[in-house]
Specification:
The complex is a heterotetramer of chains A (324), B (528), C (377) and D (426). Chain B has 19 helices and 24 strands. Chain B has 528 residues and is α/β, with parallel strands linked by helices. Chain B folds into 2 domains: 2-230, Rossmann fold; 248-330 and 417-527, Rossmann fold. With 377 residues, chain C is mostly helical. Chain C contains 14 helices and 4 strands. In chain C, the strands form 2 sheets. Chain C has a two-stranded antiparallel ribbon with strand order 1-2. In chain C, α7 (203-220) packs across α8 (222-232). The two termini of chain C are 33 Å apart. Classes of the chains: A alpha/beta (324), B alpha/beta (528), C mainly alpha (377), D mainly alpha (426). Chains in contact: A-C, A-D, B-C, B-D, C-D. The structure holds adenosine-5'-triphosphate (2 copies) and magnesium ion (2 copies). One adenosine-5'-triphosphate binds at residues 10, 12-13, 35-36, 397-398, 400-403, 428-430, 433 of chain B. One adenosine-5'-triphosphate is lined by residues 10, 12-13, 35-36, 397-398, 400-403, 428-430, 433 of chain B.
Chain lengths: 324, 528, 377, 426
Amino acid sequence: GASSTQSSGSSSGKSSLKVGIAYDVGGRGDHSFNDSAARGLDKATKEFGGTPKELTAKTTDTDQDREQYLDDLASNGYNPVIAVGFAYANALKAEAPKFPKTTFAIVDSVVPGANIDSMSFATPESSYLAGVAAALKSKTGHIGFIGGVDNALIKGFQAGFQQGVTDTKPSDKVTVQYLSTGSDLSGFSSPDKGASAAAGMLSQGIDVVYSAAGSSGTGSIETVAAKKGAWAIGVDSDQYQDPALAKYKNSILTSAVKNVDVAVFDLIQSIHNGKPLTGNNTYNLANGGVSLATSGGFIKDIQPQLDAVTKKIISGQIKVKQTP
Amino acid sequence: MELKGITKRFPGVVANHDIDITVRRGIVHALVGENGAGKSTLMKILYGMQKPDEGTIAIDGEQVSFSNPGDAIVRGIGMVHQHFMLADNLTVLENVVLGSEKLHGIGAKARARITEISDAYGLGVRPDVLVEDLGVADRQRVEILKVLYRGARTLILDEPTAVLVPQEVDALFDNLRELKAEGLTVIFISHKLGEVLSVADEITVIRRGTTVGTADPKSITTKQLAELMVGSELPSPETRESTVTDVPMLQVEGLRLTAPDQDGVERTVLDDIALTIHKGEVLGIAGVEGNGQAELVEAIMGMRAPDAGVITLDGQDISRTPTRKRREDGIGYIPEDRHRHGLLLEAPLWENRILGHVTEQPNSKGALLDPAAARRDTERIVAEYDVRTPGIDVTAASLSGGNQQKLIVGREMSHHPKLLIAAHPTRGVDVGAQAQIWDQIRAARREGLAVLLISADLDELIGLSDCLRVMFRGRLVADADPATITPEELGSAMTGASSGHLEHASAAGAVTGTAVSDTASEKAGGED
Amino acid sequence: MKKFAKIDKDRLLLGIAAPVLAVVAALVVTALVLLATGKEPFKAFQIMVSYGFKSDSQVFILNEATTYYLAGLAVAIGFRMNLFNIGVDGQYRMGAFFGAVVGGMVTLPSFLEIPLIIVVSMVVAAAWSAIAGFLKVGRGVSEVIATIMLNSIATAVISYLLQPGRLAHLNSNTNSVYTTMLPKSAWFFTMTTNPAAGPIEGFIVIAVLAGVAYWFVLARTRFGFDLRTVGQSESAAEASGVNVKKMIVTSMVISGALAGLVGMPALLNEAHTYSDEFPTGIGFIGIAVALLGRNHPVGIGIGALLWAFLDRTSNWLEFNGYDKEIVGVIQGVIVLCVVIAYEVVRRYGLGRQQRKVGEELAAAASVKKTEAQGAAV
Amino acid sequence: MSTTTTAAPAAKTAPAKAPRTKLSTPVILLIVAGALIAVAAVRAITGARDVTSSGQIGGALQMAVPVGLAGLAGLWSERAGVVNIGLEGMMILGSFFGAWAGWQHGPWIGLLAGVIGGALGGLVHAIATVTFGVDHIVSGVALTLLAQGATEYLAKIWFNTGKAATLGGNPKQSPPIGSVPSITVPGLSPWLAHIEAHHWFLVSDLAGVLGGLITNLSVFTVIAALLFGATYWVLWRTSFGLRLRSCGEAPVAAESLGVDVYRYKYAAVIMSGALAGFGGAFLAMVPAHAYNEGQTGGRGYIGLAAMIFGNWRPGGLAMGAGLFGYTDSLQLRNGGPAAHALLLLLVLLLVLMAAWKFSRKSYRQAVLNAVFAGLLLLWFLMTDTIPSEFVSATPYVATLLVLGLSAQRLRMPKADGKPYRKGQGK
Ligand SMILES: Nc1ncnc2c1ncn2[C@@H]1O[C@H](COP(=O)(O)OP(=O)(O)OP(=O)(O)O)[C@@H](O)[C@H]1O
Ligand SMILES: Nc1ncnc2c1ncn2[C@@H]1O[C@H](COP(=O)(O)OP(=O)(O)OP(=O)(O)O)[C@@H](O)[C@H]1O
Ligand SMILES: [Mg+2]
Ligand SMILES: [Mg+2]
């Protein structure tokens, strides 16, 4: 049998921290924000000990189901309870007042409440930087963006990226391709579609491809890697470090990182320290919540330009668009 | 070849009960018995398609046990089934070599062999045609060729003549005699006793699943044989007192129907059909199956939309009325294939009683069903029409064919139809039930019912009809007076060999077709 | 009369035998899988049962089952006439989407607003489903393939319209795209029996009514009889005067209209808007539920409850260190076992009845014979 | 009836059957040539180069292979009379087991495992439908459900622990699998690419198409193509195939000739599962290098549609799969503009259809087609791209349109989907 959860980790003696986390569809291992949240959780568990409890949503879930996940976690003494994904917003609104002593958190959404930590990420900002890097690195002046599913979140990525490219080199052209649409989430899990789209782009002379497409991105990265001189830009986590992509890492120019792990870790740490984080916490370039990865050192040469742009964004001199 | 103590039980019936048969080599051995007597089952056992529950089979003194037809084929036994066993979408060649590809492969060698056999027995089979393009007689020859191809020394023919017209039967018998001359053994099943006497060397009679005796074709008459088969005197469909009135009930004029075939090409299946049935009249339609009878029935029922023509029922033009309305207006329908068109096999009897009359009393009130009334009425039908069943909640599938048919007849008659379409009303029905059904049709006719009768049983047709028409390739080509016509003469018209008004010629065998009248049905009606 | 009662009782027993057989088989298979992967099966079952019967679980299960039940009904009406409406999924999403759009545009009193939304949803879903019906009767396209394609096309249509600036708004805080929130008058009532357990969604009443209507129409009306007739034998139906083509389109439309109800609990009782998190895939659960319930209104109810129970307990299994995906295995095995068990039992029942009829008739005949002999003597 | 004497009457009413319209090789070549010209024209007019580029054709081929294999799988099973809507589930099993063995032992062992995994799914379907006589569609749906549940469960256990996890595996994804070798014809491919680059009308188009077919061709694609040939040969040229097909056309007749129908049905359905498993394994190893949950994305169903489109024949099925692969690849490679160019192609098709209907004297249909063509042309002229949401629906719309236009002329095996019990034939 599995180790009993009610023991609340007393046997470990290290910590009584009980972290409950409810992932969105895809869950741990989605190569995207769920995964990133999981990393933060893992890091915190390593550091502070305790017993995490992870639940995952399904496509057929209604608000009712999602409320249930949060309820199960909170009513069994988990604190904090982290809801990964904006889809939990309604559920959280209903559940948080029921457990005033528990700290809740939600990723990618703002839910008002005294015991809620709303973590939002300025992904368009990091995508903007990615756009700058792409424009500076592209020899053909033709750049590609592959989105997994054409929802608002990914369109934010697209908006920032396009703006970054055109602000840097107004003559450059960005070609946009989505892999699936609406509630068809297959675009996040179809490397073959990613590969097709990337191949199409390469054949049009595109030499830098940014894919914000979950695990479909592996397909596009792989395809780009097969072409000499072409660059891939990863998303969400530093994909250069991804063991599954080790073979292609030398074609991964950089990744627009969304540090959900940082946010998750911050929250857990704050609970550990007895000073729970709540309120509206935006993770952006300024506080390192989103960033451009530097592993591989491929953007070393353009780092000064990137730093300059970063400063401008932080200072508000550049306003990054949220929608294309 | 010796079958001893064969017993075979199916759920609900003992198809074979302790049957003993001995068949000698090189002769034609006939097996006769009424419907459901167990002939086919016995042969399927001999052919390895069914396993006997008890009993043994010995061939040339050696005991054998077949677990599938392949074993029987190896032993030189071949069977032509009662229903064609052909794949329509495969070629003749493919149908023939199927299962015996080891003999000559499936290519040129096989084709050569088929042509060789076909020529040797004058079968005239073309190997590369699709079976669906063949007529019944051709299909029959393909079936025989299949058996010969496998080098069978014993040939089982299960009712091979049921779908053939007399001339084709003669051709078949010529083939059989040739086979016999080559030293082959033929086991031949038929209800048609005349045929049996003409071709068989030995006869075994089966009744209710057991052998009741053997007969010598040289010394026995058809009447004696029939009584042996049935165990009592044979009923007859004769109906001679005329009830025909001159009030037309159904009139069909200029009916034309085209239907697309498998290739999507439009073909004419009914061409310029005209007929009139009066109150109290039975109009019989003779014809080899597939000449448009089924389509005619479906057109009158409204199941197919004709391209041209007017159908009038009791003075009302119903050419465009939907099927349901036609049924409500008084057309009763005993379909050709009761399992496909007449019953819901897995539904209880009382629901089957509703089928086809859901809008009528007592089955429904307004838009709602009235199950209680329907059940009551089902009880009545079961009692009145002698449907043998333990209750009305059993499924239709658990009744025997005859009882299913009685239920259908009872259902249709309960709504007092003005016109009854009876397609093969006694097919697959035992003698007792057959007589009952005939009686019911006669009784209703006396009260003014008009009947369109279609049957492959020429005796039934001649006996029951007031007037006969012959259908050939989608046309009504001939008419005849049932009082004088013989089955042979009718058969000749069914092949298209004669047309017009058929007069009985007393000179034996000579059939002359002389057309006399332009409105044949009226004439026939008047003559009665 | 006694005989019929007996046959009926046998039928009932046989009817129950199949699902019980299947559930037992599924439990055995699941236990084996758990054992093979090094987990303790009996504890898992115990966890499921004890958790599944808690009062808040019961409320949850009822609410979840409401949706599944409606989906099951929608699928079942097609099944009853041998039509495989795989497209309930697309149909309910189309319906709910347009229902939400229309509901967001107008504000009327509840007794008008709610029926308006429901009717719009049913009509749109029915129209979407009718496409497959027309393709089948008009062009001979298999409804299975057509509805699968239509599901994907529905996804495209909705995602086109569900865009800020078209029929939806963007919440930039949440990155969620949603249609105008329904006015309060469109909120369906809820019932609270036990505050701790949460409210029971009022739409369960509609679901029950839909089930009763389903039963009544099929079992008690002429139309239902015609529909069942087509399902049992198309050729017999044609001969009995049913216009089969019309019936195919009609039943696709009815199936679609029922599908239009599927999204209503989520819309009227829960989210009050159609957003990009609106649940998808319920149509496929409907297929499983209809198969479990053998297309019978009560059976579907049991199937829906079972499915919801498994869903509910899967969370708790995950909580207790089991992989909740095991529930997917249980569900798959149950459905497969159920369909096999039904077939086996059906055939056994039919054969048994034929045998019985034969025996009884033979007995009756021999009685008659002896009587006749007695009379002769 | 007039006063004529005897003579064989009315033989003319049932005219002799016209010869079956079979597509001969020259006709097929003509159709292919016509299609190529039409597409070349569309490229010239719209400037959407991807319509005939070698990359597009190569991509189409890669997209077509899994669909084609699924269709081929369906063909085997349905030719033996078993409807297989469980293909999706069998593909899932194929991709899962293929990846599971593949990441550990390389793609070849992976392929084998995928095929075996799919075949196991086929076995279950065969047991349910052949032995127990469950309705084929019901069984297929149930099987897909089971395959989904089982792979999700096993993925969590097999890919998320130990070495697999360190190599990048997780509950939704397997660790990466080594590459499948691919072939490029040296000399010829670059030469064709060179010609293609000139964008000459028709010549470059032809070069693009040929180049796409022979550049960077995965060995698995070659095997899949061979399987099409092999299937044709086995099913239509061997006695095994004859027996198998006879089970789908007339099982009782086959039984009466000593064919063990159950055995052939089992063989066919297991083979069907194996082929679907190959399709799944292909997905996990050629366009991608890992198993991903949800990767099959309904391709099993599309394969079935392709098979129906192909009238239950390998050649037609290949065309159906090709059509799907073509539209899918086109929409992914070049999105809106390319799909927009397809509109023009559709207009051309409808005009041809209208002309044909007109010559066939079905004026209503002709007018209907012409009106549709006009509306589409208007749409084409008024816009220069198609909204991305509809672009991704292109393959489904195309499939539905094509089936709608062709379904009536199709002919499925006569006993397909019908229950068959040994010894119960009448
Ligand atoms: N597969 C079967 N299952 C159950 N009952 C069967 C089966 N085959 C035949 N029977 C029944 O066995 C009995 C004998 O049937 P059989 O076909 O041998 O009769 P037959 O003498 O050939 O009749 P016919 O002249 O109508 O061909 C019938 O009652 C029939 O319904
Ligand atoms: N293919 C079959 N499968 C199962 N049962 C069958 C089959 N054919 C016939 N039966 C059963 O065999 C029994 C007799 O059927 P059938 O109609 O052949 O009888 P029959 O002897 O011709 O009856 P009757 O004398 O009334 O015409 C019935 O119980 C029927 O259900
Ligand atoms: Mg019988
Ligand atoms: Mg027989």
